[in-house]
Amino acid sequence: MTVRTAHVDGTTLLATVARRNDLAIPLRIAAVLFVTALTAAASQISIPLPFTPVPFTLQPMIVLLGGAALGSRLGMSSQVLYLFLGLAGLPVFAASPVLPQGLGRLLGPTGGYLLSYPFAAFVAGWLGERSFDRRYLTSLAAMAVGLTVVFTCGVAWLAWFAQPAAVGLSAALRTGLVPFLLADAIKVALAATVLPAAWRAVGR
């Protein structure tokens, strides 16, 4: 008897559902568009903070959950599409009285966080393809690794590349990392419950 495991065949939650319903291509396309739309919707739930140019949003959790559920390539594709929509000028980035939509947003202080999304989704999807999303502790690890990608890119951009002026590493850590650690730890702990629960539902 041959026993298949997710870390061998690369099975994701999306691939499992699509295969069972014989809707592989349409369901994959719909899932990518749905995660893109959900990322854009999450950007509208943002809280500006007076001591940092980086708002508090739910986007990173959507990026990571979507990546883990879709897999590395499709998860990354959903976020690349999201960025292209933003570059086209559509209002998919968080509302801001000072930061413009379009290319200017990607060049500004939050650009590194936004540009990290395809890579964070890829990492979460790669780990999801290896069954990390099926149990709480491994799902928590996958979410944490993906969030590390977001913060690493975001802080590095804020420190050295942001326009009109980068702020340096010390200020970037102080304004782009430290204020978010506790809240994002809570978000990751909650997000890590979602996919194991979804897998249990699929199993039933």
Question: What would you note in describing this structure?
Answer:
The chain has a single domain, classed as Arp2/3 complex 21 kDa subunit ARPC3 (Orthogonal Bundle), CATH 1.10.1760.20. The protein is built from eleven helices and two strands; from the N terminus they run αααββαααααααα. The chain has 204 residues and is mostly helical. The radius of gyration is 17 Å and the shape is globular. Residues 1-9 have low confidence and may be disordered. The chain has a two-stranded antiparallel ribbon. Helix 2 (13-21) crosses helix 3, helix 8 packs across helix 9 and helix 8 packs antiparallel against helix 10.
Present the secondary structure layout.
Elements lengths: L5 H4 L3 H9 L2 H20 L2 E2 L8 E2 L1 H12 L1 H16 L15 H5 L3 H18 L7 H25 L8 H8 L4 H11 L2 H10 L1
Antiparallel strand pairs: 1-2
Q: Numbering strands along the chain, what is their spatial order in the largest sheet?
A: 1-2
Order of helices and strands: HHHEEHHHHHHHH
> Mean pLDDT, nearest integer?
90
Number of domains: 1
Query: In this structure, how is the largest beta sheet organized?
Result: 2 strands, antiparallel
The CATH class assignment is Mainly Alpha
CATH architecture: Orthogonal Bundle
DSSP strand count: 2
Radius of gyration: 17 Å
Q: How large a portion of the residues is in β-strands, by DSSP E?
A: under 5%
Helix percent reads: 55-70%
